[in-house]
Amino acid sequence: MLQCTAVTNTPITEAAVALTTLEGDPVHPEDALLEEFVLCELPEHDETAEHASQLYVGETREDQDLWLFWTGTDAHRIYRLEVLPMCPARLHERHTGLTRRCIFFYNHRPRDHSFFVTDPLRQALAEELRAGLRDHAEDRTDDT
Q: What is the pLDDT of residues 109-138, one digit of tens each?
């Protein structure tokens, strides 16, 4: 499944107020800094479904995160902020022995777990980085 490409501006004031009510420190300190714009993290969906972006991951006993949900466009955009528990789903990869956890909120659309979502932009950037590293490694071997 491809990732939804919807983007919205973050309601900074409302999000900052919501952050002050959360318990626990951020898992990553930079998470406490709100982005001006966010991308929907869910798989592609029609316009009847809400878009969602995880704004904050905190170290809490209940494993709950702050999510921004939105619908509509332009002047008709409606936002809501909600603290939700994480999805309990996990994907066990037999060939690597790794377990990946769904990073979405509890009770999202069934079978649309984060580990099945493909972000084409991230993949393109990763491939560009790999190509640059290969070129750099080849240049270093040519110098010796």
A: 878 888 888 877 766 777 777 777 777 677
Instruction: State both tokens at 51.
Output: 């878009």
Q: Are 84 and 104 in contact (CB under 8 A)?
A: no
Contacts by residues 75-78 (CB-CB < 8 Å, ≥ 24 positions apart): 77/8
Tokens of 13: 């004031």
Q: What does the pLDDT look like over 24-82, one tens digit per residue?
A: 666 555 655 688 999 999 998 888 889 999 987 766 666 778 899 999 887 889 999 99
Question: What pTM, to 2 d.p., does this model score?
Answer: 0.73
Which H or E run includes 17? helix 12-21
Nearest Cα neighbor of 68 from 120, 20, 10 is 10
